[in-house]
Amino acid sequence: MNHYPVRVEGRLDTPLSRWLWLVKWLLAIPHYIVLSLLWPAFFLLTVVAFVAIPFTGRYPRAIFDFNVGVLRWTWRVVYYSYGALGTDRYPPFTLRPDPGYPAAFDVDYPERLSRGLVLVKSWLLAIPHYLLVAVFISGALLIGDRYEGAWQFNLGGLISVLVLIAALTLLFTGRYPRGIFDIVLGMNRWTLRVAAYAALMTDAYPPFRLDAGEREPAAGDDPPVESPHAPAHRWTSGAILAVLSGSVLALVAAGTAFAGIGAATLHFHRDSDGFIAVDAGPVTTTTYAITTGDVRLTTPGARFLRDYVGRIRIEAHSTGTPVFIGVAPTAAVDRYLGNVAHDQLRQLGQSSQHLRHGGSQPAAPPLGQHFWAAQSDGSTLSWETEPGEWTLVLMNADATPGVTADLRLAAAVPALGGLTAGLLATSALFALTGAGLILLGLHLAAPPRTQTRQPATTGS
Fold it and tell me: pTM of the entire structure?
């Protein structure tokens, strides 16, 4: 049988505790936290390798060792916890090989990689394997029905189902079924081979076969895949910390850049009056008025809106009766509309929702009432926020029932230009700092250069 460059092994420890698996979700939390930091760095460095391979035909060795270490660490945690439950020995906190640990993972370093194949491996060629791996590691079962819809129970795929059966058997009999273990290890082996192939670590296409059992099929009586005589690993804690810190900063830089680009898009799409507007959707009622809920603005909140959001503009366009728009203290609106049939908006949008209040017609038209902080009998109201409790009211100008309008909200947002510049500058700073830390980590982890000794020459 041909030797595949990705090797996954696991030795079933015996005896196993009957009950320890019940709390391994808790015991493994420190590893989950570390892996949540390692995996973003794994993806980021894989992108770096994706860029480097077409130009050099090689996977940068320091990045390769790091990514293999992350997969190795992941496999140990999976093997200890609910991906196999194959050992009660706590996984070591290291990227390095540990020949004494029952779960082992390694990948042969490829001296050359195809420059063109790297462009299609992950997203195209591996698709058939992704479909199979999805069956192994994910899945849901419809187990009930409610008025709101169906209940779903996430089973976690075939691996989790088989491990659960093995765990229950272990609980009651003290024995892990060997047949289940071999199949579980085979599915994990398949999954990790696909992960390494998708991470560009090899050009060898993963075989479509379930190699069950503890050892690799071609291993025979060879020593474990992680030999104690493996080359010294240069991913020290300092190098790992530098790469992790740089990766976190790079992700923050990406998020900040997206926010800055979004802010810039809004900034350059102001209308002719300098406002940024959004459509709030249609509103309609058969009653006499539509109101918003109580909007409470504290003094700091109102000052923030005035300084950073600026003047607010509300547009209401109607093809029928002219509409009235007004903003007033909530207490005054409650007195004016207390016995008037009206709808209170609960949700804006294409499917707006209302809370209906019963009553009769208003005693007087809204226009000219003394309590309005801002009012308009046209289609546009402009208001500068002030502290207090406020309510927006939309009525027909003649106080007749049946209000229909399309709402559009706008704000000046005077601080948007400065916010855009600040976000983009911060993103650039984080990106440069993150790149510097990643390069530092790769430099610290790079293998030492071997120097060729020149033969001594003697004069004649």
Answer: 0.77
